[in-house]
Amino acid sequence: MRFNSCSTSRQSLKVILEGDESLDLLGCAEDGEKAVQLTLQFEPDVVLTDLQMPRLNGIEVTKRLMRALPNVRVIVWTVHDDDRNVFEALKAGARGYLLKDSAPEEIVRCVHEVVKGGVVLDPVIATYLIRDFQQTHQELKAHEDLLCDLTERELAILR
User: Fold this and answer.
1) Dihedral angle of Cα 64, 125, 17, 103, to the nearest 10 degrees
2) What percent of the chain has pLDDT over 90?
3) 23 exposed, middle or buried (CB, 10 Å; 0-12, 13-18, 19+)?
4) pTM of the predicted protein model
């Protein structure tokens, strides 16, 4: 299921979450500023946010929430699957990153997992992270190997 507009996404997500009797939906915001206000008012366990919202984007929402309410858990739910957005959201403090084509039962499962303290990543996103980690590790290993080839004098000069 892929959603095309913000209001359609919001309404669909509302239906999905209200369909699980163990979840209480405390609010639904039409923009990032309202999302921060509602979160500060109700102090929920979990906040689902998009990256693209009017007035305040999801990265900034996440940063503000982490500063004000460090125990709130943020899940980014978005169409953006590029490395830059993923890394920025995780650096901001997001505990989950789901794509909007996630199945409804997967969204609910992820909310429950994050409430328990877990971290949830869409499989596409997990693949990016693993690939980036492996590439960084290989680059570090290559630099380490270059240092091993230096003489004692070259190492002393480098220090």
Assistant:
1) 160
2) 49
3) middle
4) 0.78
